[in-house]
Automatic annotation (TrEMBL):
This is Inner dynein arm light chain, axonemal. Residues 171-234 form a coiled coil. InterPro entries: Axonemal_dynein_light_chain. GO terms for cellular component: axoneme; ciliary base; dynein complex. Belongs to the inner dynein arm light chain family.
């Protein structure tokens, strides 16, 4: 049997009976006289049924200590108005002592309110077992809903982390792409500058060649004009004596 820690009234808001030592060989109960008939006791049967319902709702705690097995059952003592007031005060005190958060997900606050709800179920079950079973269904449904919300919350956190990592990875890829494009732009700007310089050099060389060609053309033209003038003069000198 697995060992379970004993339940102390100082550790839980649920009221338990005193621990009881479980004997492996129960003592023999003396049988009633033969002629005596067992008379049914209605209050005892009702109490036994209530205890069975309480044990089904809040199972007894069992633990082993020094080779002996102890058990501690839920209390079947009805609660008074003062007990309910004390329960509220104990809940507020435990919340302050354990510094439970007022908002958000807080395991401490959830544990204390669960214990308080279990104690309320115990109190209601003693007066009406069916009402206690109905409250048990409400407790289980609330627990399932809370676990579903926690699972959804953890899934949303994991999804957010994945998206954050993907965005970081995408950002690094974009930064690499930007750096690559910047390098390409710098190379193209450098190539453009070199082409501009070559174009200016070609334009200067073309202008110089054009100027030299025009100068040579002018010199040839002047030389031809001078030769033409000389030829005209010689022709006029030859023609003039004949007249």
């Amino acid at each position: 049997m697995a060992e379970r820690a004993p339940v102390s009234t100082e550790d839980t808001l649920v009221r338990y009976d005193n621990p009881v030592l479980v004997t492996k060989q129960p003592e023999k109960i003396s049988s009633p006289p033969t002629g005596a008939l067992a008379q049914p006791c209605i209050p005892t049967e009702a109490k036994r049924e209530t205890e069975e319902i309480l044990n089904a709702i809040l199972p007894p705690k069992e633990w082993e200590e020094d080779g002996q097995i102890w058990t501690q059952k839920i209390s079947s003592t009805p609660a008074t108005r003062l007990d309910v007031i004390n329960l509220q005060e104990m809940l507020d005190t435990r919340l302050q002592q354990r510094q439970a958060r007022e908002t958000g997900i807080c395991p401490v606050r959830r544990q204390l309110y669960t214990q308080c709800f279990d104690e309320l179920i115990r109190q209601v079950t003693i007066n009406c077992g069916e009402r206690g079973l109905l409250l048990l269904r409400v407790r289980d449904e609330a627990r399932i809903t809370m676990e579903a919300y926690q699972t959804l919350y953890c899934s949303s956190i994991a999804f957010g982390m994945r998206k954050a990592l993907q965005s970081e990875q995408g950002k690094s890829d974009l930064m690499d792409q930007v750096a690559k494009l910047e390098a390409e732009r710098s190379a193209l700007e450098k190539q453009c500058t070199e082409l501009k310089q070559k174009t200016e050099q070609l334009e200067r060389r073309a202008a110089e060649l054009r100027a030299a060609e025009e100068k040579r053309h002018q010199e040839e033209l002047l030389a031809l004009k001078k030769t033409n003038a000389q030829l005209k003069a010689q022709l006029e000198g030859i023609i003039a004596p004949k007249k």
